[in-house]
Amino acid sequence: MAESTRKPPPRKAGSGQRRKPAAAPIDPEKVAAAKAAKRVEAEAAAERKAAEAARRARKQRQRILTYGAIGLVVVVIAGLIAVFMVRFRRRSPDGIGIPVRPSLALEAAWTGIPLGIVMIIFFWGASIFATMQHPPADAVPINVVGKQWMWKLQHMDGRREINELHIPVGRPVKLTMTSEDVIHSFFVPAFRTKQDVVPGRYTRTWFQATKVGTYHLFCAEYCGTIHSGMIGQVVVMEAADYEQWLSGSTPGGPADLPPAAAGEVVFDQQGCPSCHRGDASGSGPSLAGLFGRSVRLSDGTTVVADEEYIRESILDPGAKVVAGYQPIMPTYQGLLSEEAIMQLIAYIKSLGAT
Ligand code: HEC
Ligand SMILES: [Cu+2]
Questions:
Q1: How far is the CA of 221 from the centre of ligand 2 (A)?
Q2: How far apart are CA 207 and CA 170, in angstroms?
Q3: Which domains does the chain show, CATH number per domain?
């Protein structure tokens, strides 16, 4: 190996000093410090080397496993084909095959065992999928809007971020995401999480960071020229640091209103209260306690008032008309930004039943 032939350079310091006397007296402290620095450096280099060697060994093992498995399959299958070709070849032009009757036990085994294995994989996967689809109730909610070419995020107490997401360690975090233009995809490789962010609807994902640190955030859906620049980071913080960070305001901007409060402002500005009052006195239904309730529609069906339904009610009011009301609500399509719609939804969520 190359290492064994590479000898350490001969140490000349001592002999050199003896040959030509130093001009200035040698400071023993400095020499000791230099030696210590050298030692530290050598240790670090050795550590790096060991890590590199371990990485190479791991790669090598993986390669052996992969090619071994492929090779085994090829050899077994190709080998059996060759053997059977010779053993069971047609020996005379008018030869007739002997019908084979495999035992019932054998057939049951080769049907049942793979079925069992596949079922185990199915239920295992399905339970993980179900967990992925249902964020825990105490998850920290965060709104995300993707846009060419940035990520806009907002925490429920109002703090906004761009291309950066600060979250507490050890607590579940759920993201409600939409896009202002094209399809993006929220991808944090370290969390093993990737979710498309689609214009016109809300997609969700959740995760729980287990380690403090900074992690890559990517857009994983080609979204135009600067797609590759649509990157950011997720900063996982200790709970106390996170609380402190949350209480700070967005740098360079005024303190942000929490989405629910901002939503109330939008609600008033857009004239929603002229039809939606706190009670049933308006020409539209009261929105108090609407979120999560099931709503009866004029065509006799019912829907659960989730984010999608409220969003649709605002942008396309005619699509689902509440039973007992006239379809007089105007559309707000094109008048509201995605963030404003998310804020309206947060406001409607905050309206408890009265
Ligand atoms: C001109 C009156 C009017 C205005 C203004 C209006 N709405 Fe409506 N809205 C209605 C009526 C009437 C309905 C019930 C019929 C329907 O579903 O279209 C309704 C239904 C809704 C629903 C579904 C309610 C339910 O019980 O399922 C939501 C949510 C809603 N509006 C939100 C808003 C928001 C937010 C605004 C302001 C951006 C707004 N509306 C402005 C008249 C109005
Ligand atoms: Cu993108």
A1: 6
A2: 10
A3: 140-247 (2.60.40.420), 259-350 (1.10.760.10)
